[in-house]
């Protein structure tokens, strides 16, 4: 009985591998989609300059000097802004990672030795926080220059060797010539405000790390559903019914067909994983067992769904149409096309009813966060539960005619 089921499964796999059109759809199309979507969601190069807004309200020359000092930094790209509200919105939308506002009394307070505050708006993206050290360095440098000028000018006043009219010119000269000094407590204070819509506690996968598992999940479901759709045609032409006239039991027949669907999806998934790992350089984590558990449980769940679909479809055309529709819609809902973390909460709750959500969430734990088997067990159990439920109803309702 088991031998018969294995023969039927291998025969189904053999039929699929003979069809070049099917192979293109199962392997070439997901590879193309993975590369395109991954490329669109890949972040800027690490060598690209980080955009920082600069709003200079200073009525003197030292705000301009600060601007020029920032422009010399290779790691950031200064974008001069004229409107504070507009700059705030750009930071909120992460089009600018930071926004810096120089007050209008910046030069005046520096020359009088008073403390002055520079305000910084920062986006929520983690790598913008390295600007802390850069801005503090700038503040310290200008503080040193101002301290040198104030100290020198004060000594000259005490000795009464300069006139009041010469003080400003001399202060400017000393300030511009001061380049090194002991770092004092800065007289320029930096005040930070983090602008964000909501706080995210989880890392969001991007680039190929997101598209490789996401697109694989979608096309594996589509491939399995297409294979199941072929069984609708076999039932319609009474091929299955005629097989029962041979020494083949119903259990062997249906289990063989299901095993064939599983093998198609499993092999397809492995090929896409290896392609992602070795060609697209996706780091599939440090736990092959965790990847294998999610892969097997997911393919089992879509095999059950595919068999259940074949029960309700009357023609292969209907089955093919629903295979595409179900695969695309549930993949979009489940987070295959974009990170599920960016959609509203009610959409995230709906996504939990799709097998794609549990598979992608499990792969993200492995790829993005480096988790192992213990962390993906809830995903594995949920996918197995979906498999059991769909297999039960598929077998219960399956008809050979």
Map the helices and strands.
Blueprint (H helix, E strand, L loop, with lengths): L1 H17 L1 H21 L9 E7 L5 H10 L4 E5 L3 H9 L5 E5 L3 H7 L3 E7 L8 H28 L5 H14 L10 E7 L13 H29 L2 H5 L6 H29 L9 H25 L3 H19 L10 H7 L3 H13 L5 H25 L4
Parallel strand pairs: 1-2, 1-3, 4-5
Antiparallel strand pairs: 3-4
Descriptive account of the structure:
The chain contains 15 helices and five strands. The protein is of the alpha/beta class. Helix 10 crosses helix 11. The chain starts with a helix and ends with a helix. The longest helix has 29 residues, at 208-236. It folds into two domains: 2-42 and 206-397, no CATH class; 50-194, abc type-2 transporter like fold, CATH 3.40.1710. It has a five-stranded mixed β-sheet with strand order 2-1-3-4-5, with helices on both faces.
In short:
By secondary structure, the protein is α/β, with parallel strands linked by helices. 64% of the residues lie in helices and 8% in strands.
Count of separate DSSP helical elements: 15
What is the molecular shape? rod-shaped
Order of helices and strands: HHEHEHEHEHHEHHHHHHHH
Total beta strand runs: 5
What proportion of the residues form beta strands (DSSP E)? 5-15%
How many structural domains does the protein architecture include?
Answer: 2
The side-by-side strand order for the widest beta sheet comes to 2-1-3-4-5
Pairing-aware structural class of the strands and helices? alpha/beta
The low-pLDDT segments are: 179-186, 197-202
Rounded average pLDDT? 76
What profile does the largest beta sheet have?
5 strands, mixed
Distance between the termini: 22 Å
- Percent range for helical residues? 55-70%
Radius of gyration: 32 Å
